[in-house]
TrEMBL record:
GO cellular component, one term: membrane
Alphabetical list of InterPro entries matching this protein: AB_hydrolase_1, AB_hydrolase_fold, AB_hydrolase_sf, Epox_hydrolase-like
Gene Ontology MF annotations: catalytic activity
SUPFAM superfamilies: alpha/beta-Hydrolases
Origin species: Micromonospora echinospora (Micromonospora purpurea)
Record protein name field: Pimeloyl-ACP methyl ester carboxylesterase
Span of domain AB hydrolase-1: 30-287
């Protein structure tokens, strides 16, 4: 059964999270959710990884500041840089030792990149693998919503303007009645050819638990982040990147550029899938995570064997 935890950050924000698996597991996997979502978005991966790797791996999810069951924050901290710092705090609190595999969806992937950029020594000492799910290292460079460039520019202008308004609305949450009315729009924006009704309900529930400040406040940082140079410096860390060919927010060029600068990346393009790959293609996402985890476990086994031989 998952065990809950709480991390209190220096600025007073409380992060809620859950762990599954033994504290002394050989490798810890930390799964970081996307913008306006929460840790529940990984529920299929948590079940699948546990079935395949058992007690060798500890699984950690948490709700980013302003999301899910975590507390709201000051508007000035609604940045990817702050999320990168928060990830360090989670690791130090929940998994202070041993190798970790970092898995990030959308904003979660950008959080992982920010952690690598801002804390390179910490990252290098701890990280044994990376999985990027429907994310980008180039801000909104490739985001065209599947539309013509002119219409995409208009939508982005409306989106960023609206985000600025929402950012000033504080800790209020979106009205559930409004979100129910917006379900068709969320379904179009986030999903590809197929969408299970339970998945769109989960997404709507997650958005309903995100503060308006976080929904609006993180938009500017997400749009301007560029971390390809950071990825190019990561060396031979095992990695995977997955993207749906119907993704309107982080289309295939986003994942392709990650794979180009990080040559260890195994790139998977999922036909007919959109932005919510954990739900739309759970088996493919789980398989990619398990593959990277197995590589991390093999490296740990080899290191332990060499240490025994020296002793």
């Amino acid at each position: 059964m998952p065990e809950g935890f709480e991390v209190r950050l220096p600025d007073g924000v409380r992060l809620h999270g859950e762990t599954t698996g033994p504290v002394d597991a050989e490798v810890t996997a930390v799964l970081v959710h996307g913008w306006t979502l929460d840790g529940r978005s990984w529920h299929r991966q948590l079940a699948g990884i546990g079935e395949q790797l058992g007690d060798r791996v500890r699984l950690v999810t948490y709700d980013a500041r302003g999301h899910g069951r975590s507390s709201c924050m000051a508007l000035r901290t609604a940045t990817l840089a702050q999320l990168g710092d928060d990830l360090v705090a989670v690791l130090d609190e929940v998994a202070p030792t041993g190798p970790v595999v970092l898995v990030g969806h959308s904003m979660g992937g950008m959080t992982v990149m920010e952690y690598a950029h801002r804390h390179p020594a910490h990252f290098a000492a701890r990280t044994a693998g990376l999985v990027f799910v429907a994310t980008t290292a180039e801000g909104h460079t490739h985001t065209a919503y599947g539309l013509s460039p002119r219409i995409a520019r208009l939508i982005r202008l409306a989106e960023t303007t609206g985000a600025g308004v929402l950012a000033r609305c504080g800790a209020w949450r979106p009205p559930r009645a409004l979100l129910r009315a917006l379900r068709p729009s969320l379904r179009w924006l986030l999903f590809g050819d197929r969408c299970d009704p339970t998945d769109i309900r989960l997404v709507t529930s997650a958005v309903a638990h995100a503060s308006l400040r976080s929904i609006g406040g993180f938009r500017a940082s997400i749009g301007t982040q560029h971390r390809l140079d950071t990825l190019a410096e990561l060396g031979d860390v095992p990695a995977a990147a997955l993207v749906g060919d119907r993704d309107r927010l982080t289309p295939p060029p986003c994942a392709e550029s990650i794979a180009q600068v990080l040559p260890t990346t195994e790139l998977t393009v999922c036909p007919g899938a959109g932005h919510m790959l954990m739900m739309e293609r759970p088996d493919e996402v789980t398989a990619a995570i398990v593959t990277v985890l197995r590589q991390a476990l093999a490296t740990r086994d080899a290191t332990s064997s060499k240490r025994l031989q020296r002793d």
